[in-house]
Amino acid sequence: MEMKAFSLTDQNSGSTARISLYGATVISYITKGHERLFLSQKAKLDGTKAIRGGIPPVFPVFGKASSGPCKDLPQHGFARTHLWRITKQSISAATMTLTPDDLTQEARGQWPYEFRLDYHVSIGKSGELVCALEISNTDTKPFEFQTLLHTYFRVRDIKDVRVVGLKGIDYADKVNSCNTTEEEAEVACISETDRVYPNVTSLVAIKEQDTTIVELERDGLDDVVLWNPWTGCSKMADFGPEDGYKRMVCVEAGAVSKWHKIEPSSSLTVSQKIACP
Ligand code: TA6
C-alpha cells in the first residue's frame, strides 16, 4: 500500500512533481520531458522505511550522532520517516508540516524538543523545482540541528557525469577516512564516493557528456554531500536495480558540517533550487 502522494504542475512549463507525504519526499520531478530524480525500483513507498530515492529531507541530524541530544536518533533523523500534513496547496506549490504531534512516541523521546517544520515545495514558471524548509523552534529552550536535502539525481550513465563547483574545497572523504582538497574542476565518481564538502560558495552543477543537466542553487545550505554507493548498492535491500548506481548521483545540499543553534521562538529557512537548462 503506497502512502498518500500528490502532484504539482506548472502549466507554463509543463513541469511536474510528485510528492509522498511519507517523509515529505519528492519522488518524481519531470521537466523538459525528462525525469530528473532517481527512485529505486525497490523503494519502499508504504511508510515502512525511508524512501530510497527522490529528495528525502534530513532533520535534525545528518548521519548518526555519537553523542549529544541527537545521539538516540536513527541515521538522518526522523523527518524522512514520518507522515507529514499538507497545510497549504495550489496547483504548483504545497506546504507540508511536521510537529512533535506527528511523531511516534519513540521519536519524541529520542529528541524531546518542541519544533515546527514547514516544507514548501514549488515549481516555478520556468519549470525549476524549489524546496524550502522552514525550521521553527517553538520550545522555551534553544536546540541544535543539522539538515540536508538528500537529492538522488537521475543520470544516464555515471561514467559520463561530472560535478562542477567543488574545486579547492577541503572535503571529508568518508570512504577513505581522510580530509583532502578537491583539485578537480569537474569531479567524477569512479568508485564508491561519500564526501562532505563544507562551505561551498560556488554554484554547483551536474554535467553529463559535457552538457549541464542540473544547476543547484542553495540558500542556507552551504555544504554539499557527494554520494554514490557504487556496487555497494547491491547490499541495500531497497536499492534496485542491482546496477542502479550507474544511473544516479546524490548531490545533496546541506547544513551538516557543524551544528546550527536556533533560539526559542525563532525560525530560519533553508532552500535549494533545481534548474535543468
Ligand atoms: O548522504 C550520504 C550518506 O550519508 C551516505 O553515507 C549513505 O549512508 C547515504 O547517506 C544513505 O543513507 P541511508 O540511511 O539513506 O541508507
% residues in beta strands: 35-45%
> Main beta sheet: strand number and arrangement?
9 strands, antiparallel
Overall geometric form: globular
Number of helices: 1
Give the beta-strand count.
21
The structure class reads mainly beta
Helix and strand pattern: EEEEEEEHEEEEEEEEEEEEEE
Characterize the structure shown.
2% of the residues lie in helices and 44% in strands. With 277 residues, the protein is mainly β. It has a nine-stranded antiparallel β-sheet with strand order 6-7-8-9-21-18-17-12-15, with no helix packed on it. The N and C termini lie far apart (36 Å). The mean pLDDT is 98. 6-O-phosphono-beta-D-tagatofuranose (TA6) binds next to strand 19 and strand 20.
Summarize the structure.
The chain is mostly beta strands and 277 residues long.
Give me some keywords for this one.
single chain, 277 residues, mainly beta, nine-stranded antiparallel sheet, eight-stranded antiparallel sheet, 1 helix, 21 strands, globular, binds 6-O-phosphono-beta-D-tagatofuranose
Helix/strand layout:
Layout: E1 5-9, E2 16-20, E3 25-31, E4 34-35, E5 57-58, E6 85-89, E7 93-98, H1 105-110, E8 115-123, E9 129-137, E10 143-149, E11 152-154, E12 161-164, E13 170-173, E14 178-181, E15 186-187, E16 193-197, E17 204-208, E18 211-219, E19 223-228, E20 248-262, E21 267-275
Bound molecules: 6-O-phosphono-beta-D-tagatofuranose (TA6).
The site of 6-O-phosphono-beta-D-tagatofuranose (TA6) has 10 residues, from strand 19 and strand 20.
